[in-house]
Amino acid sequence: MNILKSPKIFLITFVLSIIVMGCKSQSIETSAPFEIKEKTYFYWVGGKQGTQGTTVRIVGNTKSLNISFSKLYFQNHEYSIVPMFNGDKFEIEGNFSEFKEKELVFAKDPSEEFGNQPKKPIKKIPFELKDDEAVLLYSVNGLEGFHKITGVKRLDKVYRP
Known about the structure:
Elements: H1 7-22, E1 28-29, E2 34-45, E3 51-62, E4 67-74, E5 77-86, E6 89-99, E7 134-140, E8 143-149, E9 153-154, E10 158-159
Parallel strand pairs: 1-8, 2-9, 2-10
Antiparallel strand pairs: 2-3, 3-6, 4-5, 4-7, 5-6, 7-8
């Protein structure tokens, strides 16, 4: 039996091939319409007990006036960013902060455990990155791209009041 002679099999094969060809994979680009001049990060600790986080800073030059930056992925976290432009130069800073929750109480008396909250699941980013690597989501004229940044330099920890 020829596979193309059966209309059902042909239709299923055709639909599956359209679906497979239509899937878009996230490809990370190593060249982009901008140049990174400085890439640093530092951990910080807040004055309130249990408050801590990470700040990432990226400085560079752009070749395009129609460029925008929307997200940064770094050390298994997604950072919302607000880029600042000055002519062809840009500066991006992203902050991730977390509050260490109090420990869970385990006791024989269930009333002592009242108030325990389950831990929030850790959100997984769509990239496998080393500790000194980041991925920047950018858009030029509406076309999105991902740019991999390597060698992000760690600065000293900052203690905030």
